[in-house]
Amino acid sequence: MLNSRNLLVRSFPLLVASLAAAAGAQDSTATATGQQPPIAYASVSELNGMLTQLQQTAKSMQADLGKMHIEKWKTDSSNKRQTLETVESIQRNLQTALPETIAELSNSPEDLGASFKLYRNLVVLYDYFGSVVENAGAFGSKDEFQSLSNDMGGLESERRALGERMQKLTASKEDELTRLRAQVKTLSAAPPPPPKKIVVDDTTEPPKKPVKKKPVKPKPPATTPTTDTPPSASPSK
Length: 237
Prior knowledge:
The protein is mostly helical. It has six helices and no strands. It has helices spanning 3-18, 20-33, 41-66, 77-107, 112-139, 142-189. α2 crosses α6.
């Protein structure tokens, strides 16, 4: 294990935690506007290139570890057994943990938490794999040492590239946090907007009540006057 690497890993969570507020403020702004901040194409392209190279290095590491003949090393059985256990641990990481962290960062290219998770995994792999390379150089064949050394160089290169990307991303988040704080300060210092005035138009006449019409009574039908017939004159005698 390399103590300097471990100290670097332990110091990074403090940096990530200090920028959590920036991510939260950014998420709040995105929620208020209903939109997610766009991710620059250059940033995504850069990360995809790094992850592709890392996957190729991991594949080469698995193949070279599988070709090792630790049982033939010129060392005691205790050292052989310990090296075998370390190799098995590295292989499990390469098959499970590393692909998971790569996929997580690929889905969230500028997520500091996902970036640090992958970086920490690479540092741990680098430490364990470095001990195997050292033992291969001391007790193994030249071919084993050469192939493992090439893998070690690739792993170190990807670890360094990811660390540099995290530094740039951290600086960008800090700038964003400063800008958001300035906006909040400006909005807090601004006077509150005047209350809205409600205008009531008193000149409008109230609606007139509808006039109810009286029902018209129908007239009685006209009657035909009757003519009295005079009595017949009796004949004179």
